Amino acid sequence: MPAPAATEVDRPADRTADEAADQAVARTWTIREIADEFRVTHRTVRHYEELGLITPERRGTTRIYHRRDRTRLALILRGKRLGFPLEEIRTIIDLYDRPRGKASQLEYVLGQIDERRTDLEQRRRDLEDALTELAEFERRCRTDLDRLG
After folding, report:
1. Tens of pLDDT, residues 61-85
2. Do the Cβ atoms of 68 and 58 come closer than 8 Å?
3. Architecture in CATH for domain 15-85
4. CB count, 10 Å around CB of 65?
């Protein structure tokens, strides 16, 4: 009797692709690997854990970080680079877990981006004004020094 034809699921290439996908989902990281990857200290990672922003699995005293923790850490650090306070970052990340998921998160983030942009543009104007004033003060000091010298 001839062997049955291989189905889509039975093909080795498909099993390999499925296994690779399962391994990607199941991939875990240690605190050292996470800290090294994101170029932060272990203390920083533990701080975000203490604040409840990330929740690694605990096996005794060992922290096991899953993809979700890694993604959340990336979002935390991106938010910090953009100048968002940790409580705003927490709100943005927590919105992702709510029923509307990404839509509510994006709406909220867009509002926060507008606020942050306004704040940064004002700071830029303030810096430009301060630099202009400093240049004028420097010019007057040099003029006064030339008169004395």
Report:
1. 999 999 999 999 999 999 999 889 9
2. no
3. Orthogonal Bundle (1.10)
4. 24
